[in-house]
Design a protein that fits this description.
Number of strands: 7
Oligomer: single chain
Order of helices and strands: EEHEEEHHHEEHH
Radius of gyration: 23 Å
Structural class: alpha+beta
Strand order of the largest sheet: 2-1-5-4-3
Largest sheet: 5 strands, antiparallel
């Protein structure tokens, strides 16, 4: 019988070029409970997955009872883990959408340093694409747009307007001081 569940993604993981975790999101809802419950089990899985795929030229493997799709961008390794009977095309669309959205958000400079510097946007992009194991969005432009909408913080707007106000006040005081000294 075909699994007709909306829960298609078991995990999304981003590792650096040495196999160290940058971001990992494991999902435990749906018909199958989470396979890797502890951080130790998760890191072991990630380490073994990295060693299995680091020299691979493919994009899809069956590993440890899961369908794993992976993509490399510079020194970042993106992994999407699904059930073994899951549709690889759907998983591929989700993975490609996330990678392209992150690339758009980081201005096509995807590497370990930029991923860590912009971790908030990276995690938001993952959350926009997959919510609790359910694939929500595959279009990278929509994902990036939704993340950048959230990225506009009111404190940033207030600080920029405050900076403009401070500069204007300094200019006004300097002008008054200059005019006063001319008298």
């Amino acid at each position: 019988m075909v699994n007709l569940s909306l829960y298609t993604v078991r995990a999304m993981v981003i590792l650096d070029g040495d196999g160290n975790r940058l971001v990992a999101k494991y999902y435990s809802r749906g018909p199958h409970m989470q396979s890797y419950k502890t951080v130790k089990e998760q890191k072991k899985f990630e380490s073994e997955l990295f060693s299995k795929t680091r020299k691979s030229s493919g994009e899809v493997i069956l590993y440890d009872g899961h369908t794993v799709l992976f993509k490399y961008v510079n020194d970042a390794h993106f992994y999407l883990v699904g059930d073994p009977e899951e549709n690889e095309l759907l998983l591929s669309a989700v993975l490609n959408g996330v990678v392209e959205a992150i690339s758009l958000l980081l201005k096509h400079s995807v590497d370990k340093r930029n991923l860590l510097d912009n971790l908030d946007m990276v995690v938001l992009a993952l959350d926009e694409a997959v919510d609790d194991g359910i694939a929500l969005e595959t279009d990278p432009n929509v994902i990036a747009s939704n993340v950048s909408k959230r990225g506009v913080d009111t404190t940033d707007v207030l600080l920029s307007s405050l900076n403009e106000q401070v500069l204007f006040d300094v200019y006004k005081q300097a002008k008054e001081h200059f005019n006063f000294s001319m008298l």
